[in-house]
Amino acid sequence: MRIFSNIIGAFAFDSSGIKDEVLFSSIEGYQNREEAVNSLKSRHPDAKELDEKELKQVLSFLADKKYFQNFYLQNHQLTRTQVKNSVKDDTLVIQAINSIDETDKAINLLSKRLREWYELYNPEFSKHEQNHEQFVAEILKNSKQSLLEKINFHQRDSMGADLSETNAEAIMGLAEKINSLFQLRKSTVDYISTIMDSLCPNIKTVCTPLVAARLLEHAGSLKRLSELPSSTIQILGAETALFRHMKTGARPPRHGVIVHHPLIAKATEKMHGKVARSLSDKITIAAKIDYFKGQFRGDKLLKDLEAKFEKK
Amino acid sequence: MRIFSNIIGAFAFDSSGIKDEVLFSSIEGYQNREEAVNSLKSRHPDAKELDEKELKQVLSFLADKKYFQNFYLQNHQLTRTQVKNSVKDDTLVIQAINSIDETDKAINLLSKRLREWYELYNPEFSKHEQNHEQFVAEILKNSKQSLLEKINFHQRDSMGADLSETNAEAIMGLAEKINSLFQLRKSTVDYISTIMDSLCPNIKTVCTPLVAARLLEHAGSLKRLSELPSSTIQILGAETALFRHMKTGARPPRHGVIVHHPLIAKATEKMHGKVARSLSDKITIAAKIDYFKGQFRGDKLLKDLEAKFEKK
């Protein structure tokens, strides 16, 4: 007597054929297949586990039409369950960071349009305020009426045209939507930050939520990020520059997405490489802690880094 | 005695030099230069208008340093005034239609992201509803709570993952902004429609506000549109196809932006060319009426067209 289990059930058989079986009615049965095997074992105390040489034989027993439906259904169920379970928190972070990138694109598109439109009335102010967010805020600061007054006030010296109320409304409408996209961006950053509190608090602390999200996006998942060596993390996101370096011998990239980290932004141009190297070291440690659900040490890692580069 | 006027003033001079002058203190003086000339004429009844041969002489009189500042200031003022007056209603329509195009781009970008994100939870529904606006509306139809219930209800058969409340909030936030962009689009269309009521009621009636706005955008201004022949209006916006036709002998384009007109959309594929030709005829008439501020005949033009193609 031998015992064998697969996706549709557990079977006890001897050389002549299947003698006893426990079919799984759902995917949960398959997930707890040990139980079925044990119950078969208790019914057939002499039964042993399958020898590899006998595998072909048992497969020929199972090539019976009555099992085909079971195989189909169980496989189908299993795939669906796996698809369903493949959505992890890191998938959500990746969606969210992509959403931020696309919100940025939309903001840029619409802000440029707002400026071109507004410049008909007051070209000087638009040139004066280069930052899109500030520019939109300034336009929205007060009511429509005061936009009119303001433009007409500024305008005594302006080359801009006169602005009627209908036109002001159209411009204000556009500015409001851009402003609400800025708010969407902020709330998405908060969302990422919230997910990361449970998913990867260490990486989040060491390298700010946005940089952490971009690292996850480039690595594909927390698991993959935790497996990457420090040198890879350092240039994650700078693939183009890396391949240019390999092909043409140009200078290798010093940093990928971690360039947005405040420590690198603060460092002098000459120090960028050094900071990036130390930073990616710490990120490597943080990623491993997070993936294996270790104790929170993010604050210590960050302090070490800061201490190292503030001394110099 | 001769009299001569230019941007800085009016001058009376004889062969020895300038004898009398009226300098303009602002651009209004230049705009009413007839007055200054007349006052000089009354002071010097024997004075005549400048002969062309004497132009060189008077210019040498004016090449005096004391006039330089005046030339600079008046020219500067004149340019500013012209820039200011160059903003016409057709400029606003063109800004607005560009704004619509960019809003559409932003909507597409963000809708694709919303779908990808939502598909983690309920891939089947996203595939089922292809229209972005409907899809967003469906997601927003009820409160967040019911989004959760709905997904979890649909989901008994779905491959999607389970949705927690924080995640639902992030998705709803994105959907709301997309929805408000759809509203921005609608209000911009209304704005275009309002401007057109005074700018070009005939074109607007013959070919719907959006098509009219695109025609204005491609022509550059109402003036230029009114000068274009019917055949050009027909293929305005299909420049790529036209040049391909001229270079390679491929089939010429049958219509440009007017393809979005409801009459063409309704017509059978075979009739597209004919409808486009008649339509652009009527648009040519409408544009001329609008530019020369003629009587409103847009409804009659449209009726003629509809009658012509509904019979067949």
Keywords, separated by commas or semicolons:
homodimer, 312 residues, alpha+beta, 17 helices
Backbone CA Rg of chain A: 31 Å
Helix fraction of chain A, binned, reads: 55-70%
| Individual helix count of chain A | 17
Structural class of the secondary structure composition of chain A?
alpha+beta
3D structure, described in words:
Two copies of one chain form a homodimer. By secondary structure, chain A is α+β, with helices and mostly antiparallel strands. The first copy, chain A, is 69% helix and 6% strand. Chain A has a four-stranded mixed β-sheet, covered by helices on one side. The radius of gyration of chain A is 31 Å and the shape is elongated. The model of chain A has no long low-confidence stretch (mean pLDDT 85).
Short overview:
Chain A is of the alpha+beta class and 312 residues long. Helices cover 69% and strands 6% of the residues of chain A.
Topology readout:
2 copies of one chain form a homodimer.
Chain A: E1 2-5, E2 9-14, E3 17-23, H1 27-31, H2 33-43, E4 48-49, H3 55-62, H4 65-85, H5 89-119, H6 123-128, H7 132-140, H8 144-154, H9 165-199, H10 201-207, H11 209-219, H12 222-227, H13 230-235, H14 239-248, H15 262-266, H16 272-291, H17 298-311
Parallel strand pairs in A: 1-4
Antiparallel strand pairs in A: 1-2, 2-3
Helix pairs in contact in A: 5-9, 5-11, 7-9, 8-9, 10-11, 10-16, 10-17, 16-17
